[in-house]
């Protein structure tokens, strides 16, 4: 007998809102978190915009001791810690514990350590001053830095795993946490992901010519998924976190339940059949979505809302085609679909977790957030699905089942199925 | 620099690495960095680096190994300061 898994806590550091109340307000009202970045102009980037959270570093003292804070430089770690600890508190639990919490684990993903922070390391080593680096570099340079800080603060004693699957990282982390609970390995998993797109990572994307460059003077209009004028994505930073619990375990402590995770799937298109390092194999995407439905025992007709990957590149219309083929739904029969990236840009590793927080909130509060900047839907998309499937204003509606997917470099896919808790 | 002066400055070096600020104000030669001040052993390296900067000295591996309590920290630092003064003479 496999277990049912529910979401009992949420935390978010998003470009358009930090903390659930602020983020909920922003996504209901279509508030953009995209800003002009003067530094990127100085650096001669083509895209000079970013979804950057209004994160106040000093507030970290609410989460960790001043000794830990002293010497913390990794922005990705800071975002992940704040989101994870907010989710923990939101689920009604204390931070402090003497015994490890053997029943609780953590799967939290990220891409790379904060390269801006690592720059100091590179300079010192090249300057023959390695001796002056101190004790705090390694823990922040290691990929498992984020999970180490989170699990250490909360005394998590079950599986503690850092995953990395490019833009599919966040949804994959949640899926892994779900699977451990479902199969009885853990009672509770703190899941999510964090990303800080520093100038060096940003520059590398800029060089690939995949970023939005025509809207530098109009930051809030720059992220335009599914529109004819979509001309690349806007990099975003932040973190999202979900506390997942085995249903009976959550009920036993009277936890509030936001939604249920019905199932999901993670696969790869193998960089075959049109799939490459940067492009998705459609067959892999379709299999991923269909396997997610099968594992959730959900019929495609039951999907009320798709939270797409939809980054605002030319892959958007192919993604819509893949969803349509996977669900065998087209035209006006297609579900509602939205892209949070229209408001916050593409948060890479953090995209899946922040978007999952949004998906869960849309179920918990029964609404569909708008796609902003969709004044000119791409005809390649409206040829496939009805225009009413693309909400441009917030819709109050009964939302029972949401499909959330992300597709990443390396031809990796992850799809989650969330449901209202009944 | 007298031992009392070094001790005063040393409190500032220790401060970021201990949450026990009250005890920090009343430390003496016998105060153990790890046992009493609850300083994480990995942070001893940071304290050595900060002390090197503060007193403009170099603390080698052998000397660093001796820095277990406040008294031995002062011993090492004053010895290194004196060595430096000899070199400059």
From TrEMBL, chain A:
- Recorded coiled-coil stretches: none
Q: Which SUPFAM superfamilies match?
A: Thiolase-like
Q: Which reaction does it catalyse?
A: a fatty acyl-[ACP] + malonyl-[ACP] + H(+) = a 3-oxoacyl-[ACP] + holo-[ACP] + CO2; (3Z)-decenoyl-[ACP] + malonyl-[ACP] + H(+) = 3-oxo-(5Z)-dodecenoyl-[ACP] + holo-[ACP] + CO2
Q: Which InterPro entries match?
A: Beta-ketoacyl_synthase, Ketoacyl_synth_C, Ketoacyl_synth_N, PKS_Beta-ketoAc_synthase_dom, Thiolase-like
Subunit composition and interactions: Homodimer.
Q: Which family does it belong to?
A: Belongs to the thiolase-like superfamily. Beta-ketoacyl-ACP synthases family.
Q: This chain belongs to which protein, by name?
A: 3-oxoacyl-[acyl-carrier-protein] synthase 1
This chain is encoded by the gene named fabF_4
TrEMBL record, chain B:
Name assigned to this protein: Acyl carrier protein
Q: What is the lineage of its organism?
A: Bacteria, Pseudomonadati, Bacteroidota, Sphingobacteriia, Sphingobacteriales
Q: Which InterPro entries match?
A: ACP-like_sf (IPR036736)
Q: Which organism is this entry from?
A: Mucilaginibacter gotjawali
Superkingdom of this entry's organism? Bacteria
């Amino acid at each position: 007998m496999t277990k049912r898994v529910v979401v009992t806590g949420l935390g978010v550091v998003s470009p358009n809102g930090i903390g659930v109340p602020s983020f909920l307000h922003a996504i209901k009202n279509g508030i953009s978190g995209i800003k002009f970045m003067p530094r990127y102009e100085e650096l001669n980037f083509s895209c000079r915009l970013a979804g950057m959270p209004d994160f106040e570093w000093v507030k970290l003292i609410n989460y960790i001791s001043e000794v830990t804070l002293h010497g913390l430089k990794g922005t990705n770690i800071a975002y992940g810690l704040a989101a994870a600890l907010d989710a923990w508190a939101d689920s009604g639990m204390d931070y402090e514990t003497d015994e490890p919490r053997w029943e609780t684990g953590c799967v939290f993903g990220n891409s790379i350590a904060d390269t801006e922070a690592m720059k100091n390391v590179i300079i010192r080593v090249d300057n023959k001053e390695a001796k002056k680096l101190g004790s705090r570099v390694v823990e922040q340079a290691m990929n498992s830095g984020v999970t180490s800080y989170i699990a250490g603060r909360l005394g998590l004693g079950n599986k503690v795993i850092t995953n990395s699957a490019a833009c599919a990282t966040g949804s994959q982390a949640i899926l892994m946490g779900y699977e451990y609970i479902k199969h009885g390995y853990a009672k509770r998993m703190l899941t999510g992901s964090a990303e800080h797109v520093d100038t060096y990572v940003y520059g590398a994307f800029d060089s690939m010519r995949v970023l939005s460059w025509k809207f530098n003077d109009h930051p809030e209009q720059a992220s335009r998924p599914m529109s004819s004028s979509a001309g690349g994505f806007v990099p975003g930073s932040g973190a999202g976190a979900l506390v997942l619990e085995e249903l009976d375990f959550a009920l036993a402590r009277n936890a509030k339940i936001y939604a249920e995770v019905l199932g999901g799937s993670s696969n790869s298109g193998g960089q075959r059949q049109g799939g490459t390092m940067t492009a998705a194999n459609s067959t892999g995407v379709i299999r991923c979505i269909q396997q997610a439905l099968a594992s959730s025992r959900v019929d495609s007709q039951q999907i009320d809302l798709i939270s797409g990957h939809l980054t605002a590149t030319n892959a958007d219309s192919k993604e819509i085609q893949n969803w349509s083929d996977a669900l065998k739904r087209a035209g006006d029969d297609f579900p509602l679909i939205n892209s949070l990236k229209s408001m916050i840009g593409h948060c890479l590793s953090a995209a899946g977790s922040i978007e999952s927080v949004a998906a869960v909130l849309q179920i918990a509060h029964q609404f569909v957030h708008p796609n902003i900047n969709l004044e000119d839907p791409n005809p390649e998309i409206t040829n496939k699905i009805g225009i009413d499937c693309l909400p441009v204003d917030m819709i109050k509606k009964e939302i029972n089942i949401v499909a959330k997917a992300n597709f990443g470099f390396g031809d990796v896919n992850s799809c989650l199925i969330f449901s209202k808790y009944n | 620099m007298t031992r009392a002066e070094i001790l005063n400055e040393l409190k500032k070096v220790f401060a970021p690495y201990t949450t026990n600020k009250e005890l920090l104000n009343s430390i003496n030669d016998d105060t153990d960095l790890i046992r009493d001040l609850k300083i994480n052993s990995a942070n001893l390296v940071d304290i050595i680096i900060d002390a090197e900067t503060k007193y403009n000295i170099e603390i080698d591996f052998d000397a660093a190994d001796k820095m277990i309590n406040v008294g031995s920290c002062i011993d090492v630092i004053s010895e290194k300061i004196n060595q430096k003064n000899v070199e400059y003479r």
